Amino acid sequence: xxxxxxxxxxxLQAILWLVIxxxxxxxxxxxxxxxxxxNPTGIVAWVDGDQLLYxxxxxxxxxxxxxxxxxxxxxxxxxxxxQLGLKRRALDNLINRRILAHAAQEIGLAVSDAELxxxxxxxxxxxxxxxxxxxxxxxxxxxxxxxxxxxxxxxxQLLAAFHLSRLVRGALTVSPAEVEDAYRLEAERLKxxxxxxxxxxxxxxxxxxxxxxxxxxxxxxxRYLVPEQVRLAYLVFRPADFEAEVKPTEEELRAAYEAHxxxxxxxxxxxARHILLRLPPEADEAQVKAVEAKANEILAKAQAGExxxxxxxxxxxxxxxxxxxxxGEFHRGQMVPPFEEAAFAARAGEIVGxxxxxxxxxxxxxxxxxxxxxxxxxxxxxxxxxQVVAEQAKALALSRASALQAQIADGGDPKKLAEAAKxxxxxxxxxxxxxxxxxxxxxxxAFANAKGEVAPPVEADGVFYLVRTLERIPARPxxxxxxxxxxxxxxxxxxxxxxxxxxxxxxxxxVDGGKSLKEVAKELGVAVVEPPPxxxxxxxxxxxxxxxxxxxxxxxxxxxxxxxxGKGAVAVVEVxxxxxxxxxxxxxxxxxxxxxxxxxxxxxxxxxxxxxxxxESQVKLNPKVVARILGGPAGS
Length: 636
What we know:
There is one protein chain. By secondary structure, the chain is an alpha+beta fold. The protein folds into four domains: 3-175 and 594-630, Orthogonal Bundle (Triger factor/SurA peptide-binding fold); 189-223 and 481-579, no CATH class; 228-246 and 377-474, Chitinase A, domain 3 (Roll); 268-371, Roll (Chitinase A, domain 3). The chain has helices at residues 9-33, 54-72, 78-84, 86-106, 113-121, 134-144, 148-170, 176-187, 210-219, 250-259, 285-303, 308-315, 337-345, 377-409, 414-420, 440-448, 480-512, 517-521, 583-616, 623-630; strands spanning 43-47, 50-53, 127-128, 131-132, 189-197, 225-226, 229-237, 265-266, 269-278, 326-331, 351-357, 360-370, 373-374, 426-432, 458-460, 463-473, 476-477, 561-566, 569-579, 619-621. β1 and β2 form a beta hairpin. α1 (9-33) crosses α19 and α6 packs across α13 (337-345). The two termini are 19 Å apart.
């Protein structure tokens, strides 16, 4: 693979530009315009013959989760993990990093042992008092269940990929013209006037005849249906009604305790105080050094024996200052990662720091450090009993329901069998499939049955039901009389929307022809709004529902208008004036814009290069493992 890249770095740059040139030109031009899955040694994928292990994937996912926790300031909702596609991203990162590391190796971008050691020792989470502390390093590895060899191999790949990334960045340039264009796109403002035509304003202008209603009803008969319905009867089996029959033995309780020890775990906890010296996100190096130096002074005072609570009241910039920096007890996952690593690596009575987080620098006093443990059986016996009784009562309720259903299926009389069990069939319906009169599984079972059939027990909200379908009523079209009001509302709405669009189009044409929007809007007494001038990044919020207002920047100023549609309403936007950016502002923004464009080009180039290298590489996923970790079919 990539034999032509082995000759020299220059050849890599040549190939890179051949691959991405079209991407860069077109995109920037457009901008200018506008089982095994839980086994740490299980194989997730192969990249050019190299094995990527599940533990490597898990480490990458942990890194992404740590970053997300730091950004959100706490625990991460599993739904957010799914929405962001973090599992897939972790897998792609792992594969892409290995591919980039291979490419870096092939062109001689080596990572020395000394460089690897220096970068690891420079990680803030592994330092104490500004110096590398192996205890923190080991604690991090234990927490992630990583060996030093695995962690260091991954770090070496990261560095190799970084070297390749830096090489790519060095090949990129940003011209003065690009900076000027970016400044124009950022700072140019537009003065507009707009009017919103709401179809509701035009409804009284719409007249429909009975013949038109009949024709519309006939053309859209599928919209106006009486849906299929069922009549049903059901029996209820509540687990609570069976609890009196459950008498668990001591042996059963102990067995349940042993089977669910995870329920009775006591998590590792720390009780601590802290002193926070805040650091603004945009702090420069001098500010960082000054705040860190002050934190070290406070650390020295605390370690020399001064009262920590008094120091917190005097120096801390956190809301806990008045309580002497008291944080109370917390377990893993409740604090931002750097703070957590330092606190849980410390012993009771130890004062550590400064620890840097996104909030600033912390000095931490660990008052108590309790290791993880297990609540003894006798302490939780009653809790276990309640859980066992609830579980066995639920199983008994299901068993009785299943037995009764089997008897009915064998020809038994439903009414007599229910009476023998001291139960009564309750009837309901007719019900449509979307009815909320009964729990959804009950309604679904009734629709799944044939007439007279009793389905196996269904569960809803911890209760079991036997469902018998008494009658199935087929769907049918509504007559015009039944649907007349709905038909009228739909037809009037459609015609009002069409009238609003036609009227707005006429207004737009009138403005393009030389009239002002205020003149043409008088026809319907529609107010014309004139918001303050805005940039592409800050269009008026009231126009946001009408789509991309930035399209107005493509129009010439004076007697030109734009039509925007959203949710039935239509907005006519008149461009009154284009306000050029202040030339003096370019000098202030020049370097920031250049760096932003360079970063964007770099991201684009790296994405293009990674895609090219991935296409040229032999990547094979382990379908079973990938399907498990992603919770669905494996991709490639």
